[in-house]
Write a structure and sequence with these properties.
about 625 residues; Substrate Binding Domain Of Dnak, Chain:A, Domain 2; Rossmann fold; six-stranded parallel β-sheet; 25 helices; 16 strands; about 50% helix; globular; binds FE(4)-NI(1)-S(4) cluster
Length: about 625
Amino acid sequence: MKPEIYEKSIDLASQKILKKAEEEGIETVWDRYEKQLPQCSFGQLGVCCRNCNMGPCRIDPFGEGAQKGICGATADIIVARNLLRTIAAGAAAHSDHARDAVLTFKKMSEGEAGSYRIKDEAKLLSLASEYGIPPEGKSPKEVASILADTLLQEFGKQDGHLLCTRRVPESRLKLWAELGIEPRGIDREIVECMHRTHIGVDNDAVHILLQGLRTGLSDGWGGSMIATDVQDILFGIPQPRRSTVNLGVLSKDKVNVIVHGHEPILSEMIVEAAEDPELLKLAEEKGAAGINVAGICCTGNETLMRHGTPIAGTFLQQELAVITGAVEAMVVDVQCVMPSLGELTGCYHTKFISTSPKADFPNTIRMEFHEGRAYETAKEIVRIAVENFPNRVPEKITIPEEKQECMVGFSAEAILSALGGSPDPLIEAIKGGDVWGIGAVVGCNNVKVTHNYGHVNLVKELIKNNVLVVTTGCNAIACAEAGLLLPEASELAGDGLKAVCKALGIPPVLHMGSCVDISRILVLSSALANYLGVDISDLPAAGAAPEWMSEKAVSIGAYVVSSGVFTVLGTIPAILGSQAVTSLLTEGLNSVVGASFAVEPDPLKAAKLMLEHIDAKRKALGLDS
Ligand code: XCC
């Protein structure tokens, strides 16, 4: 039976546009999902192997048919290998994003990327000192150049370990070393995953999964962390600011330009170009009241955090934004961009512009973005959008009125400064029980579950129980849409958390950025653990990804758990075909890295698991009041 619209999304704006799509006969991700049903159960269980051309092979989960692939691989081996390849893909996506950020940084330092500059010199110098680069006698650009070279070496490093891992508490670093999972070169870990999963290489599930943890760590404490750091130097450390979210941020009378994907390298320039007097004049000539840039997914989170640029929606709202009929240009870079946008934009006046040399899509205008002429390209893109404004078809436009205010920009540095410069007030609030614990809730939307239902209900339940929530990615956008990123949302929190939020003037849910910015959560956790003189796994903290879907989320899960944080997944990973892999990830890892995964689709039950975990950690720390 066809699901009702309210079963597709809890968000009113999305429901309105889904109705419009139905009326106009427009296909969305929800329709394509239905056409896939029932989904292949071998795939769902992770027991299908296509790693060589003797296959594909599949294992009969009922034990009646084949129990081994042609080469002899069992379900345990196949599931573990598939999971390792998923982690490798996720780590590659985050880390290749980081590489591009560092290459831009390097070009900037050599004067070959004129549109970029050092926005945060203090962060440059502090990173330089962390990497052992003395700044004396050097200009900021010279320091930047040496730092860029040092960071680039982290990708191809053949000896030693990743330098960012030195931020982790010593006990954790020691544990990683003992387990042999201290990450080495970022690219090396990813390549090794591909090697190990080639036919006839690594065929022990535990051995394969340990490489998965190491690769995840090379993302969290490598690629993602480098991306965050370099982007902060180039574009500034996010600071608290207000903005608005949801489809209602699209403007009735301004040119709407959507920036979608993950890399701020492009969107920073688009935001700037949208304020260019020449383009504003052109917009006026075309009958528009201005130029409105709005984000989707993590490109949106990056510009939101640094400029307060509004966000039009989460991953599952990218098509809905186009269906409003009010988007002049959908400008995309990499990751989480649906190829369906090509056909969809053809049904409206929207120009679909792809900008990354790595990512092409059907029916796009290709406008490759290169640092040497970044601002010029951004201007050309915005010009195309402005010139498209008169092509709007008024009867096809529906902009929902739903738009929600939010407070964002809580980098680790901003949180520290909100606390008055020291983690002390937060630690005291945790010790005293006003803040019962910390919940890190992140990750995507997934069409298999009702849009935003898991995100919003899990987070509400946590804050009700005095758990301070830190968030990134699409969870952050979902929370913003539900009004949870406002200081006023502390009314929904338990009395202790409410009092803390009121005293500090902060929301009970702190937006820490894009998905690569989960590295900020790692840094914050390390700082709190170091301050308390414990390991991260001892903290009264837990993580969750209620609606995850991307391979990046699997890599994130691997590094978060390896860092010592118990994590609840809301959608089921493709591992259930192997009892060995499932029990290792959900139980066995506890005795290895002091944390494990749980799978719980019901957000209230997921919150309960997190709360029980936090209770146990408080008790172990002697904080049982
Ligand atoms: Fe997932 Fe990372 Fe993509 Fe949103 S944007 S769908 S990866 S939460 Ni980062």
